[in-house]
Write a structure and sequence with these properties.
This protein is of the alpha/beta class. Helix content is 55%, strand content 10%. It has a five-stranded parallel sheet, sandwiched between helices. A three-stranded mixed sheet has the order 1-2-3, covered by helices on one side. Helix 19 crosses helix 20.
Length: 449
C-alpha cells in the first residue's frame, strides 16, 4: 500500500466518525508526503488545520494508521510545501485533488461552501425526519419568511448536514441573486480567531452581514467560546432584523446545549425547532437500496436485511458498511455471501454490551450536562449534579442491567437504596416528561455512536 492509498484508507474510516462538515473543513487537501522509520508525515494546507489535527484528531489518526500498518508509531503534521529529492517525488506528493479517491464531500462551491451532491432529491424521508424535511422545504421556497431561525437537531450521522446543505443548494437554484454561505461552527470560530489576530474583525462582520442565508452546522461547538458567541449574537440580530434566513444544526436542542449564553439560546428557540430521530428498519432498507442504485451495484436481500437489522443508530454507518462491502467486492471480483459479509462487518456491528460499559455511560452523561466524571460519582447534593447522577443510574440499570449494589458502588460508593431511588424516580418521570425523554434519547445516541 503506497502513501496515497494509505491516507485514503485513513480518510475512509474517519469520515464515518465525525460530521461531514468537520470532515470537509479539516481534512481537505491533506495527504501523506513521507513515511520513514515508523513515522508518517502529513501535509496540511494551513496552521489551523495543523492545530485541529494535532489537538482533536491525532489519536484517532494514529490508531487507524497503526491498525493498517503496525510499524507506524508516530504521526507529524507540517504546513505548506516541502523539499523532495526529485521533482517527480514532489509532483507525486502534491497531485491535484481530482486524483484522490472520490470523496464527494470535497467538491464544494468556493463561494457558498455548499456541496452540490446534497439535494432534497437524494434525501431519504421517513417518519424519523418528516418534520425537519418539511420545514427545510418550506424555508428553501421562502427564505427568511417562514421559519426563522430553523434549528434542526439530532444524533451523529442522521442526515443533519445533508438537510442543511440541501436547503442551501435549493435556495441557490431558485434565487441565484441571493448570497448563501454554509459553514461549520468550528470553522466560524477559526475565522473569528484569525480576524482578531490580524485585526480584521470588521471585515469578518461585513462578510457575514451581507448574506441572505447563513447556515451554521454543529452549533453546539460554540458553547464556551464567549467572544465567538458574542460576535455571532450580533451577526444573528443583524441578519434577523433584515429578514435574512438563519439555519442551524446541533446534536442537542437549544435548551440542552451546555455553556451557551442565554441570549443566544433565546434566539435559537424563537423560530422552528425540529429533531431527527433514529430511522426505522424500513427506512434503513430504503437508504441501502438507494445507495446501491447510486453506486450501480447489487447485493442479495439477506445481506441488506442483515445490515439494516444490525446497524440501527447511524445512517453514516450504514453507508460505511456498504462502502466496505463494495470495496471488497471490487478487489476480489467475486459475489458476496452472508457469511463473508458477517466477517467483513464484525468490527462495525457490535452488541450493545460491547459498545457501552459503565465508565462510558458515566462519561457521556457527565459530558452531556457539562460536568466532569468525578462530579457524577462524588457526594454532592446540588440539584445540577443530583439530576444527571440519577440519569446515569437509570441508564446503568436499563442499558447494562447492572445490579443496584454495583450501581451504588460505581456512583460514589453509595448504598444500593440510593440507586433504587434514582432509577425509580427517572423511570416514573419518563412517563410524563417529554423533555427528559428527549435528553435520554440523545444521551443513548452518544453512548452507542
Amino acid at each position: 500500500m503506497n502513501n496515497e492509498e494509505l491516507w485514503q484508507a485513513v480518510l475512509a474510516q474517519i469520515q464515518f466518525n465525525i460530521s461531514q462538515a468537520n470532515f470537509s473543513t479539516w481534512f481537505k487537501n491533506t495527504r501523506i508526503f513521507d513515511k520513514k522509520d515508523g513515522a508518517i508525515w502529513v501535509s496540511v494546507p494551513n496552521s489551523f488545520s495543523q492545530e485541529w489535527l494535532e489537538n482533536k484528531y491525532h489519536k484517532t489518526i494514529l490508531k487507524i494508521l497503526h491498525g493498517l500498518d503496525e510499524e507506524i508509531k508516530e504521526v507529524k503534521y507540517l504546513v505548506g510545501k516541502f523539499n523532495f529529492k526529485t521533482p517527480q517525488e514532489k509532483e507525486k506528493a502534491f497531485l491535484p485533488e481530482s486524483n484522490q479517491l472520490e470523496f464527494q464531500e470535497f467538491k464544494v462551491d468556493k463561494e457558498t461552501n455548499l456541496n452540490p451532491r446534497y439535494t432534497f432529491e437524494n434525501f431519504i424521508v421517513g417518519s424519523f425526519n418528516e418534520l425537519p424535511h418539511a420545514a427545510a422545504i418550506s424555508v428553501s421556497k421562502d427564505p427568511g419568511l417562514i421559519y426563522n431561525p430553523l434549528f434542526i437537531y439530532g444524533g451523529v450521522g442522521l442526515g443533519k448536514t445533508h438537510l442543511l446543505q440541501a436547503i442551501g443548494n435549493e435556495v441557490v437554484k431558485n434565487f441565484p441573486q441571493k448570497k448563501v454561505r454554509y459553514i461549520s461552527s468550528e470553522k466560524f470560530t477559526s475565522e473569528m480567531v484569525a480576524a482578531i489576530r490580524n485585526q480584521k474583525i470588521e471585515n469578518l462582520k461585513e462578510k457575514y452581514r451581507l448574506l441572505d442565508v447563513l447556515i451554521i452546522d454543529d452549533v453546539q461547538f460554540l458553547a464556551g467560546k464567549e467572544k465567538t458567541q458574542e460576535e455571532f449574537f450580533h451577526t444573528f440580530n443583524a441578519l434577523y432584523e433584515k429578514n435574512k434566513q438563519i439555519i442551524l444544526s446541533s446534536d442537542h436542542p437549544p435548551k440542552a446545549i451546555p455553556a451557551l449564553e442565554e441570549r443566544l439560546r433565546s434566539r435559537f428557540e424563537g423560530g422552528m425547532i425540529a429533531d431527527i430521530s433514529l430511522p426505522d428498519f424500513e427506512t434503513r432498507m430504503a437508504i441501502l437500496n438507494f445507495k446501491m442504485q447510486e453506486r450501480k451495484i447489487d447485493l442479495q436481500e439477506d445481506i441488506l436485511n442483515y445490515i439494516a437489522s444490525n446497524i440501527k443508530r447511524n445512517i453514516r454507518e450504514l453507508e460505511g458498511a456498504l462502502n466496505r462491502l463494495i470495496a471488497y467486492q471490487k478487489l476480489n471480483a467475486k459475489t458476496l455471501d452472508l457469511e463473508v459479509v458477517k466477517a467483513l462487518l464484525k468490527n462495525l456491528i457490535l452488541s450493545p454490551t460491547k459498545v457501552a460499559n459503565p465508565k462510558k455511560i458515566v462519561q457521556v452523561v457527565a459530558g452531556f450536562y457539562d460536568l466532569k466524571e468525578k462530579d457524577i460519582i462524588a457526594s454532592s447534593r446540588k440539584r445540577e449534579i443530583v439530576r444527571p447522577r440519577q440519569i446515569a443510574i437509570y441508564l446503568l440499570r436499563e442499558e447494562l442491567k447492572c445490579s443496584y449494589p454495583f450501581i451504588g458502588k460505581r456512583i460514589g460508593g453509595k448504598d444500593h437504596t440510593t440507586a433504587i431511588h434514582g432509577y425509580e424516580k427517572i423511570k416514573k418521570e419518563l412517563s410524563s416528561n417529554e423533555n427528559l425523554k428527549e435528553e435520554i434519547s440523545l444521551i443513548r445516541q452518544r453512548i452507542y455512536s
